[in-house]
Amino acid sequence: MSRIDFYTKVADPQAFACLLAVKVLQKKERLLICLDNERELEVFSNRLWSFGDTRFVPHCRLGAPEQYDTPIWLTHDLPDSLQHHPVMLNLARELPASLERFDRILEIVGRDEVSLDTARERFKVYRLRGYAIEHHDMSNK
Questions:
Q1: What is the architecture, at CATH level 2, of domain 3-137?
Q2: Which residues 6+ apart lie within 8 Å of 19 measured at CB?
Q3: 66: which DSSP letter?
Q4: How much is the pTM?
Q5: pLDDT tens-digit series, residues 104-128
Q6: Among 108, 124, 134, 90, CA closest to 9
Q7: Half-sphere exposure (CA, 13 Å, Cβ side) for 103?
Q8: Residues 33-42: tens digit of each pLDDT
């Protein structure tokens, strides 16, 4: 059964997503980051390549030739053929299908009402499906 981690009231969700990617990388786990479309994937990829003054976060597109040598994969189209994966960071507006293939799902919630409303709906879906849910209030961080 997957564990869901909600990080709520995040001031800058994109920057926080980069920080979470680094944390997962430091734990030597694979991370799949789901985005809505090609444009968002490109923008987020650029953020990862330029994260920090002296480092980058190694990543590639899901399905790239180097994917098995790269710890972080980006996609806007989650294929049904993807089997088990340790960690998924959901930056997409919709919930991906087949959530059970992930050990852990990370959700980042901004401070605006739209983000909070979306998170409430997702929380309900996860709870109805019986997932273990952890909440992390990031308002003071």
A1: 3-Layer(aba) Sandwich (3.40)
A2: none
A3: T
A4: 0.93
A5: 999 999 999 999 999 999 999 999 9
A6: 108
A7: 8
A8: 999 999 999 9
